[in-house]
Amino acid sequence: MGCVECRYLEAASTNNLIARMSLKFKIWLKELFLILSSIFFSVFVLPFLLVFFFCPLYAYRRVVIFLATVFKPRFHTALNLDSCLVVCDDIQNRPRNSFCFVLYLKGKIPYNDLVGRVETVLDKRPQLTCTLTRWLSVYFWEKCKNFSLSNHIFQNEESDPDKLSELLLNMIEKGYPTGNPLWELIYFPNYAHPEYATTSAVLLRIHHVLGDGMAYMALVRDLCDPDPTMDKEIEKMLKTLRKKLTISPLKKFAYLAELLFVTPRQTVYNCLKGFNSQVIPMATNNSGSSGVTQFAKLMDISLIKRISKKTGVKVTSIIHAGVAGAMRRLILEKGGRADGNLSIIYVLPKMNHPGTMTNNSFAMPLICPMTPEPSQAARLARVSDQFDRILSTPLPLGMMFTASLLGLMNETFGLMKWGMPHVGGCLHSNFAFVGEPMKLFGHVVETPILYTGLQPGAHHLVVGTLSYNGKFMIQLLGSRAAFPERDDVVKFADYVREEFDMLDATGSDENDYLPPQFRELDKKKN
Questions:
Q1: Is the residue at 7 inside a domain?
Q2: What percent of the chain has pLDDT above 70?
Q3: Domain, as residue range, for 414
Q4: Region annotation Disordered: residue ranges (predicted)?
């Protein structure tokens, strides 16, 4: 009997070894294919596209913009190419590229005073009084002929928290009226939020084509009470950061030469990694579901700072490592494969961002393996290394260049409806408000909550991590196709917290937190 058991255990061990070798071979084969594909595209396809397709398109765009200054005096300015990435949207019916920012206030403000504050903001931001138009295949902001502030600012007296929560969620995909600027503001004087201990709220919604996250944050600060001391501190901090990250002209030239002639493959390879990423599995009977679900949760900022002090790794890397680990666990739990790579699209502002109403950001695919790391610290080291390379390689220039090329193509063929492929496991962006809490007419903004749109098919989860007033909050927005119930996104937030706990307990074995059916398959020898 013992011999039979020994033979059975030996056979099982052999089968497990074969399975692990087969998995490693598949991963190696896929990696080889991506490398060869990126080399082929960079050498034989990309040069011809740049010379014979993109360069003529860009020259045509510049000519049209010049002609507009002569023949179209009502045009304010042309959209920049980054904004053209999100211009093709069903804006009047069901937009997928809106920002909704809710400011929960400790106190109530006079509605007429709020209207007056918005009028002041409009003088600084002319795009907020313009409509989107297209002339000779180029998008412009055109001064609105019949602009009225009453079409954009409203007061809602509703006090039922459940009804208000549903209303806020529906605002993400609510259409914009034809012929009007793409924004609105709603004041809720009776919205008492029990968790935040607030008594009113203000919602500001804009379409992504008006600006990115940093432009939106600057707009919110303009709406709130001025704080000259804090504004000076923020400007001083940004100047120091920009000076630290400034690249000399010689270094820029070297990066450009390397990008064009030596390593364009690196950019192409990272883009292919994004398309080849594992994604959230969805049930067949639920793949066509519409709508979104949202959840926000406070995290222990002292825990993250403790990890940073212990490991010497920046807070940004720790946050992203937690998100990456949680996404991997979610994919495995929903029946995803334990091979290949997980690519999470991380959105970053460009360092020359002017803070005005425009888009000046780019996306970087940060890659982690789906097979388990030896420990959580190993994943953190990998993520930290990728963030460090953003500042010391031409890869960010390549990703910015790629975004501009896609924007140029999107603008030229903007009347066509493009199906968005899966790009990465999810979208992640980090927001940080520096200094004292914001105030609106003397009332403290206790908590800001961000709701973002979802690109259909491209990604089913947006992860926003926000630092404000000494608090750290994770804000999740998922499609109902991938997260049919709110508890599904709540579980993801819990996973992020558990990832932080594991990082705090150094040396944790990642397999201890996997679903049992994956532990043997994923087991990796150090």
A1: no
A2: 80
A3: 259-436+455-522
A4: 507-526
